[in-house]
Every structure is written in C-alpha cells, then in structure tokens.
Q: What sequence folds into this?
C-alpha cells in the first residue's frame, strides 16, 4: 500500500533526507519536509535529527477528490443508504462490511441473521461472526474487515415468474447474471411453461427483454381476458347534474348574482331519480387458460339521505321538501344552505360543511371555510383560507395581506383580488388582480371598471382577457398562458435537476479518470480506493437518473410544442415590466403597447390586433 508520509531519523539532515526519499521512492521536490526533533552535537551529546516527509498532492487532484467525496455523501444519504441495511466490499486486503447508519434496525439479532444469510449466499469464506455481531451491536458505521481477501462468488441469472392473485396477469423478471449463466430465450419460455402460463403470452415482448438485456425489471408478459361483468342497473336523473355557472361582471365592477342560478332547486314532490334494471355479462379467461365467469349485473345501490321519499316499488325517489339537491358518493339528499349571518371569526370558528356555505359578513384572517359545494361571501375575505369543491363567489373581494389562500374545483368570481394565493380548476372572473399568485386551469377574465392585472404572477392554462396588464411604474408582472400550470412547474423543476446532475457527472468523471490513472502507475492508498469505488457507483446512478429525466423533459417539451391554445388579450394597454410566457416561448415587454392580442407563432410570441 502506497504511503502518504514517512518518519526517519539519524545523525545529520542530508543522510536522513536521503534515506526517507529512498523509502518513499520520490524526489525532494515531491515531498514536504518537517523537522520533528533536532539535537546538535556537543561535548556530551551526539547530533540527532528526526524528519517527517509527506507526499505532496496535486491541488487539482485534491479538489477533484473533495468534490467526488461530497457528491458520494449526498447520493449515499439520499439513495444508497435509504435502500440497503449494509454494504459488502471486496477489497485487496479482505472483505469489508459497512452498516447503513440511515436505515438502522433496532433488532440487532435480525440484522445479524440477515448479514450472515447474505454472506452465506455469496459463499464468503472464514467470516468473522463475532466482529459482525459487534458492529451491529455498537451500530458502527465504519467499513470493517470481516473476512480475508477472496474473489466474489458469481451468481447465475434467473427468470422469476409471478402470477397475480386474480391470475389475469403474469410477470417475468430477468435477474442479472453476476459472472454466471445468462438467461436465454429458451430458459425464459421454459420457466413460463413450468408455471403453466399458456394464454395471452406476449412472445415478442419476451424476445425484446432477452435481446435487449432488460434486467431486474418486472414486466407484464402474459395477460388474460377479463370477464365482462353484467352492467349494473342505471340511474336516470331528473335534475341537472352538470349545471355550469357563468356569472357576469357588470361595467361598474359589481357582479350580477340574480342570474347565477347557482343552486339546483327542487320542490316538494319532484321526482329526482329513476332506477333501471341490470344487464347480463360475458365470460373471460385467465393466463392459465381457466375460464372466468362474469359477475351478474346488480341493481344500483343508492343511499337515501334526509328529505327523500321512495315510491312503493322502490324505483323512484322524490324530494320531500323545497331545497337544494345533493348527490355525492352514492347518497342523495335535499339540503338547505348553511348560512352564517355575520362574520367568520372567533364566534364561529372554522367552518366545514358538506353543502353550500353563505357568509353574510366577512371572513377574518386566520380562519378556514371548507365547503363541499359553493362558498359565497358578501363581505371581505381577509388573510383566510377558502376551499370549495364547486365555486367561490365573493360579492366584494379578497384583501389577503399575503396570507390568504383560495382554492376551488369550479370557478372563482370576485370584485377584486389583492395579495392572495389562488388555485382554481375552472375560470376566474374579477375586476382587478393585484400582487397575487394566481393559477387557473381555465381562463382568467379581468373586466369591469378597472380590468387591471398588476404585480405578482398569473398562470393560466388557456387564455387571459384584461383591460390593462402592468403599470406605468414598470411593476414586475408575470403572465403565463397556454400550458397546464402543474406541468409547467414540473418542467422547470426537471431542468434545474438536470443542470445539477450534469455538473456532478462532470466532476465525478474527472475524479474517476484521475484515480484510475494513478492506480495504473502505483497502488492507490486505501482512502482513495474507497473514493474510486463509491464514485463509480454514484456515476452510474446519476447517469441513469439523468437519462430518465431527459426522457420526461422531452415528453413535456413535445407536449408543449403541440399545444395550440394560449392567448393574452389586452383591450386597453400593456405596460413595460411585464414578462409574457406562452407555452415555452418568453417575451419581455419594454414599451407601452395599446390594444392587442399576444399569441405564439413559429416559436415566437407575436403581438397582433385585438381579437376579443
């Protein structure tokens, strides 16, 4: 093993230095010299000197090794050490074990048994069992020698077959041969025959697995035919299950709620649901060739909630009072609206209701309103949280003070939105949106008296319509349209991760090349040998991850390129300071632009005539 330093002693400096250089087989300019002890000759004492000669290391080499160590530690902590309980290394002076310190087992006996079983499987000879028990007991995370130097025993590949519980799918996994016999196509087919897999086998896929050496991946190789079950009886609804609300904002910024028709009103005696009879099914077959009888069609089950009455034959359901009909999770009921006469504050606490919630007053900061139906607020929403499974209607608006969060699966209607985070699955209509982070999977329409969008971010899957975007002060405003905001967020995240992986791969490659070159000229020091092994392992992991991320990024890019939606309509003025993104194209606005529509054409953002 090559040494980093040597300590030599003798009568005079030159002789001692010459002896140390000879021992290290180096030249003077290749070492650092440190005088540890020195005694000059006198009447009663002889001269004596002790030197420490330390091998100089190249600065570039030290820097690369340090980067590699940092990367190895990061990957071990996030990937390798989260997957395994221990690691076995076959080094030049013996077999070593490292206990995973991030995935400990409290039961020492079980961990010891697992280690010994693994070593037995690998046919490791002369195992020091007591040393294994010690490091497990003491939770020693340092590499520890547990057996003398020996070659790692090779293992044959296997074809592992697994049949699903319902016998409709069979999976095959080809394990990697570690120096042993590689699985052939005949071996794999023979394994399927042993499991009696005879129906729905995809032989082309099996050839592809063997031919392209697809290893350690569970692949669906045979699929049966499901029985086509009989159709359950259907329900005929006599009320509107798909009603869409499209409230209008008037020129003065107010909302005309008289024509919203937000509630599905029913009257006492109205028929709500009729039940139809079931239909028979068709026989199937599993991968073993066994026939599968179909399930018979069932009469639909429906839970009868409050304020519902049945006909004598049980096939018709009627409303028993005037109110709002709800049908969720197989249960029908007629409810009245939950109404808070004043504010949502300390007197009410948080509100959670499985229907529509109407707040006659305001929603104070820090409170939550969670409704299965709509949420309607007559007053002001402060720094509160509103979550609705349908729509959110704010007669006035929200002054969020950067604390408010609004989320709904339907549309959001408000007179104004300020300093608020919003996530909406439907459309947004408002008189103004100021300094807010807004995400909509539909359209954003900012009309009324002001029709203003300024500050913050507005991300819209389809289109945005406004009178004014930005301000004459050049306020930073970001507008993104034409792509699902969740997909855009994932796209940006992948790009950042790819950049980091590219940097790590570059550093690791330099380190591996450096250490391999050093290993050819002379035996590596033990710590550098360990760094080389870990760097190789980390490099392969990051390379695989890099390729997977690139594939996902390419898929998202293709999807973005094929999108045709996404426009920005400005009926008055677009100001400097606005950053516009349409799909994957970006444009910064540096001058005032009057009435216009922005759209993407041939990869660029074009400013054209107003289209609305």
A:
């Amino acid at each position: 093993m090559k040494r980093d330093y040597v300590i030599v002693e003798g009568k005079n400096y030159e002789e001692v230095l010459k002896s140390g250089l000879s021992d290290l087989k180096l030249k003077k300019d290749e070492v650092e010299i440190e005088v540890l002890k020195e005694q000059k000759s006198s009447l009663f004492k002889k001269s004596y000197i002790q030197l420490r000669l330390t091998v100089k290391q190249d600065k570039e080499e030290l820097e690369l090794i340090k980067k590699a160590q940092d990367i190895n530690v990061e990957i071990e902590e996030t990937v390798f050490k989260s997957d395994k309980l221990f690691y076995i290394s076959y080094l030049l002076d013996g077999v070593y074990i490292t206990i995973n310190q991030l995935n400990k087992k409290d039961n020492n006996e079980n961990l010891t048994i697992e280690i010994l079983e693994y070593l037995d499987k690998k046919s490791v000879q002369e195992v020091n069992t007591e040393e294994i028990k010690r490091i497990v007991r003491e939770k020693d995370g340092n590499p520890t020698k547990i057996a003398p130097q020996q070659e790692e025993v090779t293992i044959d590949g296997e074809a592992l077959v697994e049949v699903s519980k319902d016998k409709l799918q069979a999976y095959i996994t080809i394990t990697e041969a570690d120096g042993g016999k590689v699985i052939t196509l005949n071996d794999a087919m023979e394994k399927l025959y042993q499991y009696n897999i005879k129906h729905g086998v995809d032989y082309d896929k099996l050839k592809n697995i063997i031919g392209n050496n697809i290893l350690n991946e569970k692949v669906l190789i045979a699929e049966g035919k499901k029985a086509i079950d009989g159709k359950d009886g259907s329900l005929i609804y006599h009320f509107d299950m798909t009603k869409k609300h499209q409230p209008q904002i008037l020129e003065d910024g107010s909302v005309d709620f008289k024509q919203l028709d937000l509630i599905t009103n029913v009257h006492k005696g109205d028929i709500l649901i009729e039940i139809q009879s079931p239909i028979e099914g068709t026989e199937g077959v599993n991968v073993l060739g066994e026939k599968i009888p179909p399930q018979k069609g069932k009469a639909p089950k429906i839970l009868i909630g409050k304020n519902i009455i049945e006909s004598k034959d049980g096939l018709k359901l009627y409303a028993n009072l005037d109110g709002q009909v709800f049908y969720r999770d197989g249960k029908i009921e007629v409810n009245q609206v939950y109404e808070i006469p004043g504010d949502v504050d300390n007197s009410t606490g948080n509100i959670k209701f499985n229907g529509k919630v109407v707040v006659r007053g305001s929603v104070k900061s820090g409170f939550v309103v969670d409704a299965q139906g709509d949420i309607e607020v007559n007053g002001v929403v402060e720094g509160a949280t509103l979550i609705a499974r349908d729509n959110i209607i704010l007669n006035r608006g929200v002054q969020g003070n950067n604390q408010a969060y609004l989320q709904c699966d339907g549309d959001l209607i408000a007179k104004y939105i300020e300093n608020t985070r919003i996530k909406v699955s439907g459309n947004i209509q408002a008189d103004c949106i100021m300094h807010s982070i807004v995400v909509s999977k539909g359209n954003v329409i900012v009309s009324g008296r002001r029709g203003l969008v300024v500050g913050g971010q507005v991300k819209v899957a389809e289109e945005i319509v406004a009178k004014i975007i930005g301000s004459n002060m050049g306020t930073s405003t970001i507008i993104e349209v034409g792509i699902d905001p969740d997909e855009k967020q994932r796209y940006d995240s992948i790009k950042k991760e790819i950049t980091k992986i590219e940097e790590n791969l570059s550093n690791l490659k330099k380190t591996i090349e450096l250490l391999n070159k050093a290993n050819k000229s002379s035996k590596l020091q033990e710590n550098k040998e360990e760094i080389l092994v870990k760097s190789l392992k980390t490099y392969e992991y990051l390379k695989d991850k890099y390729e997977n991320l690139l594939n996902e990024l390419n898929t998202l890019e293709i999807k973005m390129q094929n999108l045709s939606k996404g426009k920005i309509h400005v009926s008055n003025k677009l100001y400097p300071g606005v950053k516009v993104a349409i799909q994957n194209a970006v444009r910064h606005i540096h001058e005032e632009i009057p009435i216009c529509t922005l759209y993407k054409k041939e990869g660029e953002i074009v400013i054209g005539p107003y289209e609305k």
Summary: Residues 485-521 form the longest helix (37 residues).
